[in-house]
Amino acid sequence: MDYQNRAGSKKGGGGVAGFSETNADRRERLRRLALETIDIEKDPYFFKNHLGSFECKLCLTVHINDGSYLAHTQGRKHQTNLARRAARDQREGKTDPITGLLITNGTTGAAGAGATSIQVRKNLVKIGRPGYRITKIRDPVSRRQGLRFQLQYPEISTEITPRHRFMSAFEQRIENANDNKRFQYLLVAAEPYETVAFKIPNKEIDRRPGDFWTRYDKDTNEFFLQLLFKAEKEERYHGVPGLR
Predict the structure, then answer these.
(1) Residue 149 in contact with residue 186, Cβ under 8 Å?
(2) How do the pLDDT tens digits run along the chain, 244 residues long?
(3) How far is CA 112 from the centre of its chain?
(4) How buried is 204 (Cβ within 10 angstroms: 0-12 exposed, 13-18 middle, 19+ buried)?
(5) Are 16 and 7 a contacting pair, CB within 8 Å?
(6) Pairing mode, strands 145-152 and 131-138
């Protein structure tokens, strides 16, 4: 672009930048400054999808670059949602995703009615992976396929109960998501053991009672999880009125 014929510029010089160039340069300087002071990878709500765009998992917004995402985090919508999430976690006694502290409700003496107390999260030393057994199952009536997981936690404490969640191929960062779209992951966590992940087919799981269930036996310290995948016909016509 030719800048030398602009008003106020000398021949051979760069010329006086217009409003759009000045604004673009200001945004770029602010982006570089923010990246120097903020580690965007540690943001619990930051997610880079398979298309290369940046998503805010809190506000469910999509941004074309990191500068747009950082500008969004300083906006009114994101700050309002952060305040709402903090208030909800405080009521439910959940862990703050940013500080890693456990938020609990409680009172402290006469002046503590309605006050909150924060307990520091314990840094437990991981003692290894639990023992596990995986069994393929099939429903005798519908012939649907499924899996039964059995995990052993002999050293688990009495107040800990194993928890599980399902993760898509695009959430994990160990393998290439585009090459593993046919799979999803089952994660099971229980301190002080390491979190284990099982790679299972990316099929819709039937969560009806009896088809999907979990049980933790405190006498033997064993955690059981059974799931059945929906049949191909059920997946194809899922949500159609009149079909079970």
Answers:
(1) yes
(2) 555 555 555 665 555 667 777 877 877 777 777 667 677 778 888 888 888 888 998 898 998 888 788 888 888 898 898 888 888 877 777 655 555 555 544 433 333 334 444 444 555 667 788 999 999 999 888 889 999 999 999 888 888 899 999 988 887 777 776 767 788 989 999 888 888 999 999 888 888 888 899 999 988 999 999 999 988 765 555 555 555 5
(3) 34
(4) exposed
(5) yes
(6) antiparallel
